[in-house]
Write a structure and sequence with these properties.
It is a single chain. The protein is mainly α. It has one domain: Cytochrome Bc1 Complex, Chain D, domain 2. It has 4 helices and 2 strands. A two-stranded antiparallel ribbon has the order 1-2. Helix 1 crosses helix 4 and helix 3 packs across helix 4. The longest helix has 32 residues. The N and C termini lie far apart (39 Å).
């Protein structure tokens, strides 16, 4: 009985891990398809701040998930100094913006 419970719990954790990996892969692919990597990298500032720097800044901000879609859609200037200015990303659907923001915040 104990082995069955442990095996069952392991299956739940593996399934959750695979689902998270699939979501991350989906989001990473979407970022590539939508041109995010033209300005952002995973770990260093390029034309825009890195995804990790964005995550570090916004991950613990409870208002970020509500504010970031508007920033992505409208573009931004001055959030990261005058060097970085993001063009409006009006070509993204609401679902795509949500997927990308959730993924970025998980970095």
């Amino acid at each position: 009985m104990r082995a069955f419970i442990c095996t069952s719990l392991l299956g739940v954790f593996v399934s959750a891990s695979v689902a998270e990996e699939n979501d991350a892969t989906r989001a990473y692919t979407l970022a590539g398809q939508k041109g995010c990597f033209e300005c952002h990298t995973m770990s260093y500032g390029y034309i825009g701040p890195s995804f990790r720097a964005l995550a570090e800044r916004y991950r613990l901000d409870p208002a970020a998930r509500a504010q970031l879609p508007g920033i992505v859609r409208a573009g931004s200037r001055g959030h990261w100094g005058e060097r970085f200015a993001m063009q409006p990303q009006i070509h993204l659907t609401d679902e795509q913006v949500k997927v990308l923001i959730d993924w970025m915040l998980s970095q």
